[in-house]
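ugh finaly. both done.
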Amino acid sequence: MAKTAVIACGALALHIRQIARRDGLDLDVYPLPPELHNRPMKIAPAVEELVQQLEGRYERVVVGYAECGTRGALDALCAAHGLERLPGQTCYDIFGGEAEIAAAVDAEPGTFFLTDFLVKAFDHVVWRAFGLDRYPELRDDIFGHYRRVIWLAQDRTPKLEARARAAADRLGLELEIRDVGDTGLASRLRDLTSTPGERGIP
């Protein structure tokens, strides 16, 4: 059994598994539903439930979430259980860089972000999650204050680009593509799952 368990956001879990295999990281990944992003106050309780289930089974348990709109609840949980989480306010920070994402939002506050996962799961995680499959007339009520979509592309392919453009079209927004890869997540994952000694900390 792996020495480290990662309780991961469902939108990051596949990427974390891929990086772990590629980089030889000894991890077991436990994903939570990506739909929790639409109800962020449910994230910390869901993480805590998994923490309790994994207690005593691993040398370390870490949290594969950024802050993700929990308003401090996730950080309070991590502090109470002695856990570490991924840095940043959102998973977009992890892929695109905190300064770069902040600059994008400063330049256009009405920016809706997509990752590869969200492009692939757009119909389920965005369109149906907001009820737009049943009430498409609500699109402008929900997304009317947005002005553009930025796709933070980890692995850009023609097929995925077509799906990203289709998603932006359904939202009635212009698409901008930024090729970010997964180096940001890989670096943060290595830091998160390494021991203090491996990080050069006494």
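ok and the 2nd:
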Amino acid sequence: MTEIGGTVRLSTLLGNHPGTAALKRGDISSALVEFDHDDVKVTNTGFKPLVREGKYDCGELAIVTFLQAKVYGKPYALMPAVVMSRAQHHTIFYNAARGKLAPGELEGKRVGLRGYPVTTATWVRGILSEEYGVDPDRVRWVTFEDGHLAEYRDPATVARAPAGKEIAQMLLDGELDAAILGDKAPDPRLVPLIPDVADAERKWAERHRTVPVNHFMVIRQSIARTRPEVVKEVYRLLRESRDRLPPGPERDALPFGLEACRRSLDIIVDYALKQRLIPRRFSAEELFDDATRNL
């Protein structure tokens, strides 16, 4: 953080999302806060430098990465500001050309994923367990990179893919039975594992009365403790940018404020605890500090 003439400049990790577009275009400005945006093409590649090196003054961070960062004492405060969320049922795929596979048949199968503790994978494992009776400990997980926290170690059910292998090609070649790939598959033979996926996502959202949250904003604890007015201004700018979206599901999926985030936070904490990604349950209140809890 640097301060010149009363304006605070923050080194920032923030992706190009619908709710952040107005802020990143410069449509919204502040006399108190300016952002020095890092030009990172894929935002999640900035998560490791954030939690391992403390590279940024503020930035977006996947919620499970934050939960682990809190466990390991990393110096960042969570803000109740969601910058990216999405339904998750559609992110796991299988190769339909190699035969039918049902979600409840994953035990004993090889399932690829970028990294074991990533937030999307945590949501998917929780959904598979809750809705299809899958025991994650009975799945043979295959990863392609380490978790974001250097202190974290994968469970014994996780193996690393051979060097040089690519997750989608392994799925096409039959070396994996399914894989968590994200929003889109790179090949038409790869289809969502969960049948009637849009309906499944809608019913999950109706039952839980929330949308799975992915990325929140975080800020250095030292700034939160010494400059709470800066935290409030960052929050205001993010919220105003979100509010530039037209009313509807896209804006509704980006909750701001502790109470708006509570249900989704409680679920992801429960999933992370059951999957042994964190050692104890955190209440929603515990995840924030004095400068961010009541934003």
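summary for the 2nd one i guess: Residues 126 and 271 are 5 Å apart (CA to CA).
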